[in-house]
């Protein structure tokens, strides 16, 4: 129920993780890092690196010899990091040296599939992805065995428990979030599909900037269906699906996260997990806003059946402060604004809302009734003031001012302005602790702890907003990730 409500918490399949524990003699797994891709024993540490698969396609073929060379180099590099690193406490240094786990992962998987002209959500796409991941794992294992011959296996290696050839590293592969590095590399993050093919970013002076996926632009120009008008239409709709100018086969190849069914998302994760991922995978299973609690349950069950070690689901729009949106047609035929970090939109409210009434006193001991209406997530959405003295001539101006204040606060809440900013303004406008703005601010503060308003707040490193992606809150403006 909670996962349907707002995507939290994720689910971990601890038994599946412990069945694949490469050092069972040292203990059992009990938890992962925040993003879920690293199952670690107490005091072990993350040592991660990712290969941009989009750079290994030549003439619609995967350049496996070059990829193999990169894998061998990456394993050696990550193994050297263990020896060069300065750890914060001795226990972490000791345990990391004992197992020498590394997490060689991928990014740009969707870039690879696009260049191979394989839809992300197809069985052919999943088969290709699994094959590439298995190849990476096999080459990583070869590199680790070679290092063991040169430098010795990881100190905790015990052939009684570890039924594999002596190797330098107890674990080799995982698929982690690559929010920052994928921005630098200009590729899809981790094993995720692209969220949007054309995004519209609002810049200074009200201008709009279209940000176009490089592969889509190349294909559109090559195939002769490129136009600025088409780009604006794709940005406005948030999808390439349904645009007659785009051939059907290319619509399938450029399906994005919201266009891919939850089943195909989870089958991609399961295929990768079974085909060469020692640890685990950080991935978001995208669900449409219309998904039910039973849909979430079915996703969890399928993930368990496919051998996943953990899952994160996200139902579109389930967090009121969601800041990354693909433009979609709304129920009234209007097009919602698309793909622009930092944009806000007015929340549509149902005809019936739950409400609470609060009886207060102003500075002159006049009675005020404040009525606060809440949405399904128990976030305050509207505020009304009711005065027993509405007909008193001497208080009419004050009543009008209070009504205006409540309407402005309601508007700010419905446009999903961060509640702490609303409270800050109310506090600044108050001349007395019993003034209505002060009482409104105090009331809103009491709701802060139990609401959704803090889920997607401003980035702590820059003025941008945090986006829920790969199971983490990430800023696309500066690359900050709450999981790193």
Question: Could you explain the architecture of this structure?
Answer:
By secondary structure, this protein is of the alpha+beta class. The chain is about 35% helix and about 15% strand. It has two domains: about 1-190 and about 260-315, Anaerobic Ribonucleotide-triphosphate Reductase Large Chain (Alpha-Beta Barrel); about 355-450. The protein is built from 15 helices and 14 strands. The strands form six sheets. Strands 1-9-8 form a three-stranded mixed β-sheet. The model is unreliable at about 320-325, about 330-345 and about 450-455 (pLDDT under 50).
Label the structural class.
alpha+beta
For the sheet with most strands, the description reads: 3 strands, mixed
Physical arrangement of strands within the biggest beta sheet: 1-9-8
Radius of gyration: 26 Å
The CATH architecture term of the largest domain is: Alpha-Beta Barrel
Distance between the termini: 28 Å
Describe the structure concisely.
With 484 residues, the protein is an alpha+beta fold.
